[in-house]
What we know:
The chain is α/β, with parallel strands linked by helices. It is built from 12 helices and 25 strands. Strands 1, 2, 11, 12, 13, 14 and 25 form a 7-stranded mixed β-sheet that branches. Strands 7, 17, 18, 19, 20, 23 and 24 form a 7-stranded antiparallel β-sheet that branches. The protein has a 3-stranded mixed β-sheet with strand order 5-6-8.
Amino acid sequence: MAEVQADYVIVGAGSAGCAMAYRLAMAGKSVIVVEHGGSDWGPFINMPAALSYPMGMRRYDWGYVTEPEPHMGGRVMACPRGKVLGGSSSINGMIYVRGHARDFDTWSDMGAEGWGYADVLPYFKRAETWHGDAGDPAFRGHDGPLHITRGPRKNPLFQAFIESGANAGYGATEDYNGQRQEGFGAFEMTVWQGERWSAAKAYLRPALKTGRCTMARGLVERIEIEEGRAVGVRLAGGRVIRANAEVVLAAGAINSPKILMLSGIGPGKHLAENGIPVVADRAGVGQNLQDHLELYVQYASTKPVSLAPYWSLWGKALVGAQWLFTRKGLGASNNFEACGFIRSRAGIDYPDIQFHFLPIAVRYDGKTAAEGHGFQAHVGPMRSKSRGAVTLRSADPADAPRILFNYMSQPSDWEEFRRAIRLTREIFATDPIAGFVDHEIQPGAAQTDAELDAVIREHAESAYHPCGTCRMGRADDPMAVVDPEARVIGVEGLRLADSSVFPLIPNGNLNAPSIMVGEKAADHILGRGMLPRENLEPWIAPDWQSAQRESAAPARAAE
Length: 559
């Protein structure tokens, strides 16, 4: 078998991997992208409204689940990860949230020097072509590969939710990805011309067209390391793909630490227990696992304005047919078109609660829709102190790793989640959304701390934002896995860039910051100067130390 080689071998055709492949190929480098998943062709992926289908389909999803979560009543919870071109950007909800400026300043404070907001803003801008209808263009990109759009917000519930959030004292934001995240406004999504605009479409396909980027399919068993340097990757069946310059790992927050450990890079004791020779003893590999939990606060509607009629078999057929022939209608949106970011109490300087509004009462996976018309807000705290881990089940690359998020393991998590639910109820008791409320479906009758805790324990779900398992930090930090130039500490010729390097989970959904990491890491890999820093200041509530919201707007209970 002839040896296959390129300047760079990238493991994983996901959000960061696709971005790096594009930038390296455009710089004239030869690149091989290794991906175990298959094609992203098909309506389940490409129709935005069909977002609930790819998750859980073994064709597109690794199908990972957690170990029984001890603080969630022993529940085994889903942890979907994309096994397809585009990775999780091909099966996610297409919601585009950069995160708050303070998140990235905190990264820098934690040892990821050069990753503060002023450093990463130019890379967010380089990635995107923004099609927003309001906001400050200085904060946005206008000629990048990634198209960012907003839904038409035709359903009256969207505007009612936005106005109620503002009337409850939280204000409005024209662009939460711009200067001001805090407040209520229009959600943004990676949808273009009625189709999902994944990292595969934005970056990988243009990279492949250069002729300098090619694909290799297969399960990566380990990184080949010779005399302390990564020289390639070994696939199932014994095939080796060699890297003349560097190997770049971009397999995501679950698979990147797994591959490192299978390659002998990780906690020495754990590797020895699995019979794996230690190449680099890095205690932080697989640790620092973070995620966002959310609860669906659901209401029955007094008016027939929700998407419920389209949830029948006949309704879905009509939506699908319209999308198939025109790329328009309800099928052309993820239907998350309104959102909110608020602070849970005075003394917090930037939002720590996020809302996704949906004009139907239904589970994220599309199951158990509530009878009749309804709507819901997905709500949860953004900065849980709980930390989990990804560890090996065995030395067999075909075995799924052990995943334990350790959700709700900190007392503060329960306090923050209860407050999030109660603040959500206040918003839905404020006009104009209060006029649409018939009764609360979930949490329903739960009022006391104990009752709310029981609802959280039984019904809170992952927002599917795993990150942090190979965190970035200073080279002398014993828990850091990569340095600020995305180099794996202790191994030459090996970089890692995906959501696993996040020191702290950002404020919101993770696709946008994952792509940004790929964009910025590409410049580090190429050894060229970084884009000039942009010192644009974010909006911070002027009275954040003493006030939780802008005004004491009274909440009116729904009649």
